[in-house]
Amino acid sequence: MKAQPKASHFIDGDYVEDEAGSVIESLYPATGEVIARLHAATPAIVERAIAAAKRAQPEWAAMSPTARGRILKRAAEIMRTRNRELSELETLDTGKPIQETIVADPTSGADSFEFFGGVIAAGMNGQYIPLGGDFAYTKRVPLGVCVGIGAWNYPQQIACWKGAPALAAGNAMVFKPSENTPLGALKIAEILIEAGLPKGLYNVIQGDRTTGPLLVNHPDVAKVSLTGSVPTGRKVAAAAAGQLKHVTMELGGKSPLIVFDDADIDSAVGGAMLGNFYSTGQVCSNGTRVFVQRKVKDQFLSRLKERTERMIIGDPMNEATQVGPMVSFDQRQKVMSYIDKGKTEGATLVTGGGIPNNVSGEGYYVQPTVFADVTDEMTIAREEIFGPVMCVLDFDDEAEVIARANATEFGLSAGVFTADLTRGHRVVDQLEAGTLWINTYNLCPVEIPFGGSKQSGFGRENSLAALEHYSELKTVYVGMGKVEAPY
Ligand code: NAD
């Protein structure tokens, strides 16, 4: 098989198999071919991974931050050296075009190890608090064993975005990738060992929605960071709350992207296309509700249609391909059923709306699709589709569009295109979202915090903010005189 790893899990520095676990078949989304056969973790595997992490963590936390950082930076270098191999694996795992994975997946994982490896020496410092004779100081301390649970759209990036800050802060991690994309995280674990990470600190176990709870409910786990859908987030947060564990929730969205009539229309069209069709639309922060001011609607739609119909759909391993398949058959079915709803609820189909005819019949392809005349009540404007389906809605004025943009339970991201500097800042100030863009969309470099508000989650990944979510404060009060007790 094309991408069969040595074994299903990576625990305590090595590959581990337990064939008693149910079979997980990894399919190449472009053809439906089985490329690896793995086993979900049994309870014994879960125990073994958590025990290894628990054993390894104290010594790692006791190392100097610089020494920890050096290992993480070495992992970043190895990832960059192996970028082609890792990108091809990511393409096999997800179906995303190699044109994307080569610039966006292992490279952003490497950025994460490089950033946290670099900032950690200063990032965990505490405070000295003078109290007039007495004083206090704070220490930032790791949490212990952290669990990461991943979605299938950016498997390697998610494995690194959770692993890098967790390890930098002195924790150990047990990571469970999505059952749809089990392969990339194993490579990250392997590379970390090669970079010199002591064994047991970054473990990967396979499994699905029945395995996740074994990790979340384990008493030795201090924190859970989930990337997934809102319904899963609710279940995981509720389970974690039962033992008062720390949580980070990176969940779904239905983000607004607002195009005012003074915007550079070609940039706005480009931003909307990147924010709807990149990774075949399987991006949580996508601006799937594109509000276009009425005066520029026709111009916007005609440029959008023309550019969308030029996109190259096909074999993800071909460097020219811009649109690959959906991750799975089920995901394609889900997206197609939303396209049907868009049609029956009265939206105008501008382009796409079907399965492309130039690709293998077994691949899970969907045409990049644009609906216009979408209204706020339509299902396609309210629910997360997680596919290449853009909804264009009309609006007249600023106050109206802000109210409509905010009328959703989600709050992950938002964007504004305008030439008016003050309007750009004024509008983002009123939009309810965790990550916002002015005159661009979906850029998430490691230096800036990323995460959602409202039902899209809480906690932040990337930037120094992530370190706060993988550590806690210890406060020490130091008495400098005699204790004066009234009794
Ligand atoms: P999902 O919620 O179905 O699964 C996510 C992960 O949770 C998987 O690994 C799954 O096995 C696990 N899981 C499921 N039930 C569980 C349970 N009860 N306990 C513990 N673990 C459980 O999501 P998905 O379909 O893999 O990914 C798509 C979703 O992820 C979309 O909603 C998307 O918006 C979201 N997403 C969010 C971000 C972000 O950073 N905010 C990034 C990528 C994807």
TrEMBL record:
Coiled coil (residue ranges): none
UniProt keywords, alphabetically: Metal-binding, NAD, NADP, Oxidation, Oxidoreductase, Potassium
Domain of life: Bacteria
Keyword flag NAD: yes
Domain Aldehyde dehydrogenase: 16-476
Annotated positions binding NAD(+): 150-152, 176-179, 252, 284, 384
Reaction catalysed by this enzyme: betaine aldehyde + NAD(+) + H2O = glycine betaine + NADH + 2 H(+); betaine aldehyde + NADP(+) + H2O = glycine betaine + NADPH + 2 H(+)
Active site: 162, 250, 284, 461
Keyword Oxidoreductase set for record: yes
GO molecular function, one term: betaine-aldehyde dehydrogenase (NAD+) activity
E.C. code: 1.2.1.8
CDD domains per the UniProt record, alphabetical: ALDH_F9_TMBADH
Binding annotation for K(+) 2: 244, 454, 457
Cofactor mode of binding and number, as noted: Binds 2 potassium ions per subunit.
Pathway given in the UniProt record: Amine and polyamine biosynthesis; betaine biosynthesis via choline pathway; betaine from betaine aldehyde: step 1/1
Cofactor(s) for this UniProt protein: K(+)
GO terms for biological process, alphabetical: glycine betaine biosynthetic process from choline
PROSITE patterns (alphabetical): ALDEHYDE_DEHYDR_CYS (PS00070), ALDEHYDE_DEHYDR_GLU (PS00687)
Location of Cysteine sulfenic acid (-SOH) modifications: 284
Top enzyme class: oxidoreductase
Binding sites annotated in the UniProt record for K(+) 1: 26, 93
Assembly, per entry: Dimer of dimers.
Homology family: Belongs to the aldehyde dehydrogenase family.
Protein's name according to its UniProt entry: Betaine aldehyde dehydrogenase
Lineage summary: Bacteria, Pseudomonadati, Pseudomonadota, Alphaproteobacteria, Hyphomicrobiales
